[in-house]
Amino acid sequence: MVAKKNVCHLVHGFHVGGLEKIIINCINQLGEQYQHTIVTLTQAGELVKELPPSVTVIELNKKPGNDLSLYPRLYRILTERKPDIFHTYNLGTIEYQWVAWLARVPLRIHAEHGRDTYDPFGKVAKYRYLRQISSWVIHHVVAVSNDLYQWLQRDVGIRQAKLALITNGVDVEYFSPKFRKPAPDKFIIGHVARLQGIKNQKLLINAFQHACQQDRNFSRQAELMLVGCGDELPALKNEANSDAQHAGQVIFAGRQQNVRDYYARFDVFAMSSIAEGIPVTLLESMAMGLPHVVTRVGGIREVLLEGETGLGVESQDRDSLATSLLKLFHDRALRDGMGQVSRERVEQHFSQLSMVGAYADLYYQRGNH
Q1: Which segment of 12-16, 97-101, 305-309 scores lowest on mean pLDDT?
Q2: What is the pLDDT of residue 307?
Q3: Which residues are 313's β-sheet partners?
Q4: Which among 356, 357, 355, 369 is positioned nearest to 167, based on CA atoms?
Q5: How many H-runs (helices) and E-runs (strands) does the chain carry?
Q6: Any idea what DSSP says for residue 48?
Q7: Other CB atoms closer than 10 Å to residue 59's CB: what's the count?
Q8: C-alpha closest to that of 278 among 168, 153, 135
Q9: Are 57 and 77 in contact (CB under 8 A)?
């Protein structure tokens, strides 16, 4: 009988989001030959209910600022549990790879899923330096998009031998066009993401309102539905209400566990991010057969087939975003054609099966150190 591989995942928090979905899906699909522990620097939310009962979740409840107590606490966890693999995610966890090195964890992996508001373009020198020196004790650094891969190699200075490209993937059986139920009398532009600065939902609201001002039929039939919660919610509600004439058409659906029901109602999926890895929600919407209007940033450029799966606009370009929304509103055949190509693209290049297989390969074949 083959011994189980014990994997310890370290995340900043464990709440509703694309990164957390990837972790859950990998855990569910990797099989019984793995035993998983999730350690959160801060807290874990209700999302832990979607994890198998065999998964242990440990909350470190980090204090604000630099909480030095976390290092010895994590060291004790690692020496007691003796994981075979230590897997960290994004900049906020990378420094703890040194703790895993001290604890002599055999295989140490770090994954970059995207950058945050404090450094959207990866230009801040101290963060690049932190990634570079931490890579000395990391066996494999995973990038979820080629954009991130090239940046890690070229700008951060991580050796190519340590880099692995594993693009995000989604369950194409669960997210399928057969579940679509769009309302015939409405045109719903949907968006699913955390409401935070890097996602720039303010631009999406502004573009939607601009389109309403330009086209009376669009104003009567179109709705913008934002699914998600986050720090920007109050400011975004104020933004939506700043144009009283069209305020009622912006719907804040809040945090939702079963997002498939929302994709099912959308006619178009929209994203207006400043920076991205490869957004899981974009892939889910494409698997549902939805066309998209997106900003051409980061890994989105690797997903978008311009004019075939959807329409791309430059970041911060409100007018082009509004024009693209109007174009899809007026052309049902174009929407249907793009939706079909979107579905095919996810099936061929962004399936969960391929993603999980790549992580299994990293954990096993490449992970015998």
Answers
A1: 12-16
A2: 98
A3: 295
A4: 355
A5: 15, 13
A6: G
A7: 15
A8: 168
A9: no
User: If residue 248 lies in a helix (H) or strand (E), which one and from where to where?
Assistant: none
Q: Cβ contacts of residue 338 below 8 Å, gap of 6+?
A: 291, 292, 308, 309, 310, 328
What pLDDT score does 243 carry? 66
Q: Is 84 helix (H, G, I), strand (E, B) or coil?
A: coil
Strands of the chain, DSSP E: 5-11, 34-40, 56-59, 85-89, 107-112, 140-143, 163-165, 187-192, 222-227, 250-254, 268-271, 292-295, 310-313
Rounded to whole angstroms, how far apart are CA atoms 269 and 282? 7
Distance CA 105, CA 110 (A): 13
φ/ψ of 132, rounded to 5, equals -65, -50
What are the φ/ψ torsions at residue 296 (nearest 5 degrees)?
-85, 75
Find how far residue 79's CA is from the centre of its chain.
Answer: 31
Q: How far apart are CA 18 and CA 5, in angstroms?
A: 25
What's the CA gap between 305 and 340, in Å, rounded? 12
What pTM does this model have?
0.94
Find all residues with CB under 8 Å of 360, minimum gap 6, and list them.
30
